[in-house]
Sequence to fold (572 residues):
Amino acid sequence: MFSNCSDPSSLDGLAWFACYLTNGKHMAFYGSFGVVMVLLLITAPAALAFGFGGAMAARSPFLPLRLIGKAYSAMVRGIPDIAFFLFVPFAMDQGLEWLRHHARCPDWDAPIRQGNDFVVCAAAKLPLSSSPQWVHETYGFFMAVFAFAVVFGAFAANVLYGAMRAVPRAQMETAEAYGMSDRQAFWRILVPQMWIYALPGLSNLWMILIKATPLLFLLGVEDIVYWAKELGGAKTTIYAYPHDDWRLYYFLGLLVFYLGLTRISEALLGRLTRNLSHGQATMGGEAQRKAPA
Amino acid sequence: MSCWDTVQAYAFRSIGVGERLLPRSDFTLCEQVTLIGSGLIWNIYFGALALFFGFFLATAVALARNSHHRLIRKPAEWFIFLFRGSPLFIQFFLAYESFVLLPKNGIDLNLGFVTLTASTGWLTRAWAGALIVLFLNTAAYSAEIFYGALRSVPKGDIEAADAYGMTGWSKFRRVIWPTMLRLAWPAYTNEAIFLFHATTLVYFSGFPAWRQKGDALYYASYFADKTFNPFIPYPIVAGYFILLTLVVITLFGLMNRRLNRHLPQAARTRIRFKPQVLR
Fold:
């Protein structure tokens, strides 16, 4: 980055660090913090959508759908989330390739599972082996997003289901008395009022989601943990910037990053709770009303 | 090899008893169920010990956090913030890297008249290193739960204890502590469930599975990688963990009954699921 960085071996002290911390690999490391933020920003609404679907299914009058919804929201209770993170991308990948195989190569007669191999025709590979590197990386990233959305959707389904039940029954009865259909009452009365009841659970879920982001590493995405391991490992003199095992310091940096992120989120969510309780018939809203202006 | 032979060979493989070589080809369902079940020993080991030791530290930290003295309260607050505000995954890595940096030959402790050599190699092994991290982690989460419960101990109970002339230790032991536990128990049950789930992270987070002695998820991912079929090993893990969760809920439910036994039926708190404590 700086002009004097062309020959790192001649540097020492502060200049060495300035060059070391701005070399190409470190830029990729800083970029991976962006990957984490992108993951958070995509996963949060996706998980909310999954959760909303799950909660709606669990309330459905149609029995099979209700059972599916309840099973979906109950599964995270008994099964470790890490098992899902390992299973979902793997299974999704094979499922998609299986579907594409049947769609694209109908006259292929060899079995797909041959012993310990999973063989589909070349046109069904996902992503195609001819596609460039970034397609593979993006595909892997979105597989990870999907795994996160499935797991956190199940948590969100728990929270939203509870929130829907917390809306006072009298509100729904009033809606029925006005002649609204079930669907109208759900969308116009229940959904707008449930958020304040869901907020404590959802803000907790956001904190959990933040703390789950390093698990991206397990899914093979080049995230901050990957780079911290990569850059921190001891480098011999054949590298431009030789150093000892510095992984401890890199992980300390990540620790500080996460502590900061959770701290800031806590403050923002506290403010959001205050704003949303405004004018609500809850304890928080009542306290705001009584407080001297 | 019949299924019973497989069970004999692999039932305790995860702790180094039985066949040394893992199955390499022609995987049978029996092998998968046995080996993954053998890995569950480690999950139970980590979960149970961390929970047991963590309980005492958590009580101490919760009391410290409730203290009037700044010097006692602040460290407790920082401890809780540090372990609750950062991912367990990073904590594992950090712990492993710092244990690795300790001198290999051990640290010489000079006690003046005799020099003791404290060996440090065992800290880098999962059975000790990961247990320490899980212990501190669950202590922080439980301390926050206990602190919340401590703050909601009814004023009347404490005044009644005062009226009986109880002070200090006997007041804590007979009035405050049982009530605190009773109030905290439903949330603490959830913490226990998620601690057992968190133990699956150990062998994916820096701590190496020495001689392929790993936990349930380690063997499941071994099978999934070898057979290229995730649809058998992961549901087996899921089944084992659902059973483990049911056992935890039953045991904690019994304790909950005991803590609430003096209350009328309607006033007892039931254990409800709240995903408060995923790491």
